[in-house]
């Protein structure tokens, strides 16, 4: 934060910067396109890092509603960020940190703090150039920390929006300093209006002109559409968008996003980027690209289905919304499924259904496994608790993530220990048996309403109990996982819970915080909950071991 803002004349000469911007509409897969570009360059031997820029004022994504903005992804250093950061980590199989995530709020906050510290030497601090200069400083910081020779930078939003103009300005300034080091990708959308039946290029033409008005000419257009782009459309885009025809890349809808890096290479995108920015790279078939292709094939070839019910709230706003709210969970299940040769089929069930009518629980009998992801608040919670009970009694594999673990403990306390009113203060602070309690460190935050970035966040170590399901699944005695919570198992109840058979198989190194609860294999095929979020560390080329253990028990 304290770095001086004097613009550097030369950007680190061997580093290339690839900006990814969006045209026409949002939600066309800019994040996946950016991740795929990063992946193909990594497979060409480059050290690649990726940055997401979100144009909103929020300091992070932690305070935003996941049904509107998608999942809040958590990095190892505890940064609560956009779900695209998860895509980057998964595609690149690397761990990123908060320097890889930028919001307008963060940029302005740094500039204002610096002004208060007299770091601008008496100058008038202005939106231009000081804000774009801070953007550039952050890009260079991420580059230096990763020692990267390629930085992929995704600018959120669509061109033409007021919100992302200053980030485009930063890209323009970087290109002005060294045109050979900056490459701009426009991911645009080509609609096929149903009554017209023909793919339309005009919205993309406008988008490119709007980008031109920011002083930027795209180097390539990635044309997203339902179907493949034909030659005529390529010619039109080339002519009117001022881009050579071979730099218009067709990117039709695909069944699996893991095919996209492979498709980009087929369209020549890797060579094109390297040629334009004058970057030498290794195009030989390497271990990374081989493994990627093997995984991408498994996605298509895994035919045997395993049926998993995902139970929670947030599911009543329409399918497209919900899948975004739990993106990492879905991906984690897929990686463990495909890598075990099965195709996971997820059914989203709103827990409120079980509150309305307990008989609905029978619907769960047809599933091979039940998963309850993280969550907050009191809505739908009684329904989830009855689902946990159903899974326990009927020996259906159950995997609870964060809130899903806390509710497992509440269910056990109520129905096995007989503590009928067992609860968490999040649902009923007046309960006499708060088997889940507020963490000591969180009391002040909650009382003073200091809710932004104050949960127990990111990496913490846990020690595993020898011979437990968790320890056997991980194959190690010590783990580090990512967290996001304010509540924890109340230690006053641990003895009672353990006496009745629940095993706390993972704890913090000092033994004070319960990280994993499970039933032994002799009592249940898989009944396990984690206080942390294992989904944030699941990768296509490194599936998460707990998810794999869950999937294996579902297959059985
Ligand atoms: N609401 C619970 C807590 O804050 C669980 C959080 C979560 O599932 N991420 O502890």
Description:
The protein is built from 20 helices and 20 strands. The protein is an alpha/beta fold. It has 2 domains: 9-294, P-loop containing nucleotide triphosphate hydrolases (Rossmann fold); 303-555, 3-Layer(aba) Sandwich (Rossmann fold), CATH 3.40.50.880. The strands form 4 sheets. It has a 9-stranded mixed sheet, sandwiched between helices. Strand 19 (514-518) and strand 20 form a beta hairpin. The longest helix has 20 residues, at 127-146. The protein is globular and about 75 Å long. The protein binds glutamine. Glutamine binds next to strand 16.
CATH class of the largest domain: Alpha Beta
Distance between the termini: 53 Å
Mean pLDDT figure = 92
Computed CA radius of gyration, to the nearest angstrom: 25 Å
Strand segment tally: 20
Which geometry do the CA atoms define? globular
**What is the CATH superfamily label of the largest domain?**
P-loop containing nucleotide triphosphate hydrolases
Arrangement of strands in the largest sheet? 11-10-12-13-20-19-18-15-16
Ligands in the model, by name, code or SMILES, are: glutamine
Could you give a short account of the major beta sheet? 9 strands, mixed
């Amino acid at each position: 934060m304290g770095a001086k803002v004097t613009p550097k004349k030369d950007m680190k000469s061997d580093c290339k910067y690839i900006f990814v911007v969006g045209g026409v509409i949002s939600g066309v897969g800019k994040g996946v396109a950016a991740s795929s570009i990063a992946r193909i360059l990594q497979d060409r031997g480059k050290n690649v890092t990726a940055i997401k820029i979100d144009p909103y004022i929020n300091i992070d994504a932690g305070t935003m509603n996941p049904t509107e903005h998608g999942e809040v992804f958590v990095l190892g250093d505890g940064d609560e960020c956009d779900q695209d950061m998860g895509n980057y980590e998964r595609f690149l199989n690397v761990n990123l940190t908060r320097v890889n995530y930028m919001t307008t709020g963060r940029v302005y906050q740094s500039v204002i703090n610096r002004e208060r510290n007299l770091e601008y030497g008496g100058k008038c601090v202005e939106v231009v150039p000081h804000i774009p200069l801070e953007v550039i400083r952050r890009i260079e910081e991420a580059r230096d920390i990763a020692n990267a020779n390629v930085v992929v930078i995704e600018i959120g939003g669509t061109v033409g929006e007021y919100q992302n103009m200053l980030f485009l300005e930063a890209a323009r300034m970087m290109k002005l300093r060294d045109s050979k080091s900056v490459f701009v990708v426009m991911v645009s959308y080509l609609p096929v209006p149903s009554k017209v039946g023909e793919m339309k290029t005009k919205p993309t033409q406008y988008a490119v002109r709007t980008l031109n008005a920011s002083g930027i000419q795209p180097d390539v257009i990635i044309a997203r559409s339902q179907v493949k782009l034909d030659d005529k459309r390529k010619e039109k885009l080339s002519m009117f968008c001022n881009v050579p025809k071979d730099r218009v890349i067709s990117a039709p809808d695909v069944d699996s996003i893991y095919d996209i890096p492979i498709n980009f290479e087929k369209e020549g995108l890797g060579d094109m980027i390297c040629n334009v920015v004058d970057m030498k790279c290794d195009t030989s078939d390497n271990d990374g690209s081989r493994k990627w292709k093997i995984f991408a094939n498994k996605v298509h070839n895994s035919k045997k289905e395993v049926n998993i019910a995902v139970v929670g709230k947030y599911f009543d706003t329409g399918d497209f919304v919900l899948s975004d709210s739990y993106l990492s969970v879905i991906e984690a299940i897929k990686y463990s499924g495909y890598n075990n040769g099965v195709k996971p089929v997820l059914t989203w069930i709103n827990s409120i259904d079980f509150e309305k009518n307990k008989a609905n629980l029978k619907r769960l009998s047809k599933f091979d496994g039940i998963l309850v992801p993280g969550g907050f608040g009191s809505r739908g919670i009684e329904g989830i608790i009855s689902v946990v009970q159903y899974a326990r009694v009927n020996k259906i594999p159950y995997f609870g993530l964060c809130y899903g673990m806390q509710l497992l403990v509440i269910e056990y306390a109520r129905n096995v220990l007989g503590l009928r009113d067992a609860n968490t203060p999040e649902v009923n602070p007046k309960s006499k048996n708060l088997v889940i309690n507020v963490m000591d460190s969180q009391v002040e935050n909650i009382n003073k309403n200091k809710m932004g970035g104050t949960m127990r966040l990111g990496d913490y170590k846990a020690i595993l109990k020898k011979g437990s399901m968790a320890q056997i699944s991980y194959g190690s005695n010590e783990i580090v996982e990512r967290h996001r919570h304010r509540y924890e198992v109340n230690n006053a109840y641990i003895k009672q819970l353990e006496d009745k058979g629940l095993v706390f198989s993972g704890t913090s190194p000092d033994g004070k915080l319960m990280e994993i609860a499970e039933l032994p294999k002799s009592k249940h095929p898989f009944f396990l909950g984690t206080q942390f979020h294992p989904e944030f560390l699941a990768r296509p080329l490194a599936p998460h071991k707990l998810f794999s253990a869950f999937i294996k028990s579902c297959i059985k």
